[in-house]
Amino acid sequence: MINIDVNGRPLEVEPGTTILQAAQKAGISIPHLCYHNALPPEGSCRMCLVQIDGYPKLELACSTTVKEGMKILTNSSVVKDARKSVLEFLLAEHPPDCPICDKAGECKLQDYYEEYGLFESHYAESKSRKPKQIELGNNLLLDRERCILCTRCVRFLAHITKTGELGVTERGIKAEIDIYPDNPVSNNYSGNLAEICPVGAITDRDFRFKTRSWFLEEKPSICPLCSRGCAITIAFHPGFTRFDLPQRVYRIKARENQAVNGAWICDIGRYGYSFMDENRASKIRLPEDGGETDWNQAVDYLSEKIMRLVHMKRTDRIAVTVSTFLSNEELYLIKKIFHEDLGISKIYFVDPSEGSGDELLLTEERTPNRRGAIEIGFEIIPPNQEALAETTDIIFVFGNGINDQVENAVEEGIKPIDLKVLMSAHKSAAAERFDCVLPMSLTAEKSGSLTNVDGLVQAFIPALEPLGDSRPLWAILTDLGRKMAIDFKTYRKFSSTADIYRELSREIPFFRK
Amino acid sequence: MNRDYSDSARANIAQILKRYPNKEAALLPLLKLTQREFGALGKEEEKRVAALLDISPIRVREVVTFYTMLNRTPVGKYHIQVCSNLSCSIMGAESLIEYLSKKLGIHVGETTPDKIFTLSTVECLGACEQAPCMMINDDYYGHLEPKKIDEILSRLS
Amino acid sequence: MDEKILTSDFGVEDSHTLAVYRKRGGYKALSKALKKMKPDDILAEVKAAHLRGRGGAGFPAGMKWDFIPKETEKPKYLCVNADEGEPGTFKDRYIMSHAPHMLLEGIMLTCFCVGIQTAFIYIRGEYEHVARRLEAAIEEARKEGLCGSNILGSGFDCEVIVHRGAGAYICGEETALLESLEGKRGNPRLKPPFPAVVGLFQCPTVINNVETLSNIPSIVLHGGKWFSGLGLPEDGGTRIFGISGMVAKPGVYELPVGTSLKEIIFTHAGGMLKGKALKAVIPGGMSAPVLKADEIDLTMDCHCMLEADSMLGSSAIIVIDQDTPMLEVLRIMIKFYSHESCGQCTPCRIGTSWIHKIVQRLCRGEGRREEIDEISRLASNILGKTLCPMGDAAAMPILSIIAKFRGELEATVEERRTEIQ
To answer: What is the ipTM for the molecules in this complex?
Structure first.
């Protein structure tokens, strides 16, 4: 371990740590623009210069490794002046775009000016005019006036995606970021470019001009669109009091998780969030409910229908179709209720077809919990349509939350069945064919856990409120379990997903990690 | 225009590629060779060189646009590059540039309509003892004055 | 002391040919080294010679070679810095044109000493004819077994390759040179790691100036102590002083380290041109802070120059006369640095361009004298904060002109302003 002193505070750090990293660990922030912890240090913005006792010049915190006994000052007047001078240089050529720039409110230049700048402009020349909407590809736009040439974008494409579409052309003050004319940015991680740009130089059309960063709240969640389980942040608008907005979720951001996705997410996860707000099922529908019903009635109704078959010892007439979109807790409850309590063997899976994975994050499986389903003990088999039609009186279909694939898959065999129950997050034409429709909450609207492709179990908490009458599936199933009272003791214990998980891990060693 | 490299150029290219342990290091010499062959380094030439080295064309453009002596558009048969740095300016480069500009009938940065002469100013050529001086294509001319410039230009055209 | 090491063959007909070089004693050092000396012997002599780098930084050559790791599995490289872009400098052009074999011999001695088998001469693109001369010399030497494989039957191999630049002053900075040689933009690298450990193609690399290496043959032949004795205790040998500007006999003059600046200007270069009076002297290439006419009583060695708040740099002397406005000098300087800025780091990229815009305005008569303070402030904000030394190279001379010629600058600014009104 190496002993250093930062602003008078002794610190002990691993050899090979940079001053910036050491300071971060100690909760001291050193401003930086071109540095990104997932990319090799560049050292060109000069914002992170700090003072080291005994060194003649200021040194970069991002790329200077600590040495035994180093005494570092991150806030001396010399350091503050240096920061001011770097900011002044950057702002000299920077356009006064804040009122129309999407990055406002989360812009490093704004933040640092507020914290370390606050000087009068001395720039008496005319600012160079440059193109402000260069198409980079994948709906990304480059504003060259705003660009501070930190080259994070270039380096991301060079080191992370290794696709290298962006380069720096020209020299000196004329240097600019550019693509080759017929070779735009076209990889599945391009959205990260807009996120890592410290200013509003790279923006994406998905977010441009839609809202302001300070209107959005952010909550952590996990992306459910493949089995990587990338950590995401859902940025949503809590809504205005006087009028409605067309959407809650305005964007998805990457959330750092060194064990899973590092600092990145793919474009499928980043831009595929419309399912959270669009076309949501929000009302309970029971046969002959007169348009007005509630969850108690729904659970009573289902329980009664099921228990009748239980008393006739004909639970073999019940079938379940589910997807590996559901959480560990929900799949466990399905196993407990339908397989253990009711002795049902007809449990089928309908999942979206696999896509191509890549070497970075995206997996071929496009559901988040296939591994979880397997570890819980399910065999992932698709529905047997003939068996369904002949042998089933009640079918429970649990939708996948993204589209109506599951409910559509059982269309053929389903018509003869007496009672068709659909629990789904979305409206669909297929829903019309069901007798009972219960609105389900999404991953983003509930708590629980998912098991990713590498077997890592990840817990998540709600980011959004459930829409309309929708409820998390684990809560619906817990109520059903209690109501059926085949094993009331167990279900009575479940008042949170943590309770369910505790039981799950008690039963299955895999989940004890 | 779908010209290809001449045979001698191809031979040179092969030699150049052998010189370096990493083939990317051949980029600058290949660009200079290609510029001599085709007159300038436009998109076609960038892609040619990119193919020779199996690198992405944007990497080639990054280099082409960095170096002063690599031209993206053709220059005249004779590229007159007058030094405008310190010793040459002390010794009267500015008036010589004006003289040349008037004589050729073009501004700095332009090419004569017959495409024979292009006039540029450049930074220090490393011939300050002959100030004021200029470079025409590969050749240096120093101790310049209007009469000498007249002689040089008439010899060339 | 009239010892001429580097320029002894200048003026001799066909001095650039192998035949003439050999007849006049060339390649004796290489022969001696390969037959009778060990690499460590050569290193000892170079250290004893107190040979400082002649490119601009003045770093002791022996110490630099010592930084190369002794134990390494990677190939080692020598890069000869023949980029000679520092305004006012032309000495290396003379050496390479008139004594290319001396440089070649120096290269091979260096490679033998450090254990290098491939040397690249990075020569600026404008020196096309000089590059061809070097290539011809290499071929001549190869034919005679003096370069290439199994040199002089010793088993020592050394390839020398000429690599041309394409017009970028920044490629004279050693790490930018490496980047350029590797086929990339000439962007300087962060140090550490230093080129001696991570250099060309990530391998240990020595980078030396043309003149520095051209001294090695004589050091090997006559010994380091002899070389050191020609100059000053920590700064040995002779240097080629290039002098240009408003003097009667601009050119190259090889003189001992520590020669008086006044002597160079007034004795060797014949003093001011007729009718011209001395106003200022740049002693070591444009990046060296300027000296006023009453400040030139100095000796040309690293230490004295540093004490005088300037630098010996590339020992390129530019003599400025009373009729050249310092505002013009300022304009030419900042035009140069902003044009040559690679653009990587914030202070240099934006700072040099900002200063350039202000100075252009002042020259056009659209400025005020107070703006000279602004230029000073901006230059101070560049100083010490850039990724590579070019920031300082831009800032220091500008600050020195403002410090020493403020009165004249302000007067010129006011003059131009009234002119356009």
So the answer is: 0.97
